[in-house]
């Protein structure tokens, strides 16, 4: 009841203040915080344990309240001061407590541990129709025309993802580096970005077997060999 009264009072103050003034903007931010707090009180997830295991993710409840992060599941802001959120200690996947039951992406740390290897074909596209016009991760409907959701291609896997699973992050693609000595960062999905970040220090590429001709053109490789 106190929160509801505070929300109503905040609304009244916003209407009374000069439009577009700094004080009105501050009041709007306060209103957002109050509404989020009210939503969190309705959410039984607050009573969840400190550790949750989902799809091989090992989620720990975060104690830091001052940072502002983006939820990897719903792609909205995590308000650390008033919302409960979790981080996977393996791949650093972050999400609201209410989004935990909806997580569909397995932990890429587990994938790195079980099968540490790269996709070595350059953007191996098979077409959006082969995915049944659905996101390769969450299976949401997507299309190249942006209706109902924009299809974004990952340059590492060649697959298409929705905007919630592909944030246009940039990463060096190993196949392009090995075959073309091309280190230009390309757009990759969130899953691919985290996988590549975890794999970057693993010595799994046998260049003399994969592309021995590189040693004829790259002087630094000759020195290293």
Automatic annotation (TrEMBL):
Molecular function GO labels: zinc ion binding
Location of the Phorbol-ester/DAG-type domain: 56-107
Protein keywords: Metal-binding, Repeat, Zinc, Zinc-finger
Record-linked Pfam families: C1_1 (PF00130), RH_dom (PF13901)
Gene3D superfamilies linked to this entry: 3.30.60.20
Top-level taxon in the UniProt lineage: Eukaryota
InterPro entries: C1-like_sf (IPR046349), DEF8 (IPR051366), DEF8_C1 (IPR047983), PKC_DAG/PE (IPR002219), RH_dom (IPR025258)
Record flagged with keyword DNA-binding: no
Main function: Positively regulates lysosome peripheral distribution and ruffled border formation in osteoclasts. Involved in bone resorption.
Family: Belongs to the DEF8 family.
Name this protein carries in UniProt: DEFI8 protein
